[in-house]
Amino acid sequence: PLIIVGLVTAAIGDLGGGAGKMLLVTVIIAYLDTVLVALGGFGVGKTFFLHAMAARLIERGCGVLVIGAYSFLDIARKSYLNQEEEGLQELIDTDVLMLDDLGSEPLMRNITIEQLFSLINERQRRNLATVISTNLTEEELRERYTERIMSRLTDRTQCEFIPMVGRDIRTGRR
């Protein structure tokens, strides 16, 4: 299935929704119980991919939560500083968590990396699906979020990286 994903992914930026639907079906069937990380430049369809997947999963009765990286940081900060566990617990408990634009949020000392590790670790331990989109490369993710988090994300038994390429659908540039 990963070969199919690799072939279809490049078409998203060029073909739009039709290609996205084909990729979505392939990904859902093949990888629902793992972490998916969609990597790619600006405007290649990563957020579209997350929202299309979320809509399909919701249609099928699956609990899905789509959250941006800034909103995650806000929840993590409140959880850490105010001992408010319910927001973070909702992220941990949802059937499918989609974290959009990881890497765009500021790094807050003792919060961002620690809470992200806790979230990813606990969701993997429970075999709950997590989908992450980012403009960062694997190496940039490693530098920003440490080897500890990347160890979880590069465990090929539980995580797949999906490179998304194409032209920026907003500007038409590659």
Topology:
Layout: H1 2-15, H2 17-31, E1 35-40, H3 46-59, E2 64-68, H4 69-82, H5 85-93, E3 96-102, H6 112-125, E4 129-134, H7 138-153, E5 159-164
Parallel strand pairs: 1-4, 1-5, 2-3, 3-4
Helix pairs in contact: 1-2, 2-3, 4-5, 5-6, 6-7
Give structural notes.
- Strand 3, helix 6 and strand 4 form a beta-alpha-beta unit.
- A five-stranded parallel β-sheet has the order 2-3-4-1-5, sandwiched between helices.
- Helix 1 runs antiparallel to helix 2, helix 5 packs across helix 6 and helix 6 packs across helix 7.
- The protein has seven helices and five strands; from the N terminus they run ααβαβααβαβαβ.
- The chain is an alpha/beta fold and 174 residues long.
- It is 55% helix and 17% strand.
- It is globular, with a radius of gyration of 16 Å.
Please report which band the strand proportion falls in: under 5%, 5-15%, 15-25%, 25-35%, 35-45% or over 45%. 15-25%
Instruction: Give the number of DSSP strands.
Output: 5
Give the helix/strand class: alpha/beta
| Discrete helix count | 7
Which strand order does the major sheet show? Answer: 2-3-4-1-5
The profile of the biggest β sheet is:
5 strands, parallel
Q: Give start-end ranges of low-pLDDT stretches.
A: 1-14
- Cα separation of the termini: 26 Å
Helix content, binned percent: 55-70%
Rg, alpha carbons:
16 Å
Helix/strand order = HHEHEHHEHEHE
Structural shape: globular
- Average of per-residue pLDDT values: 80
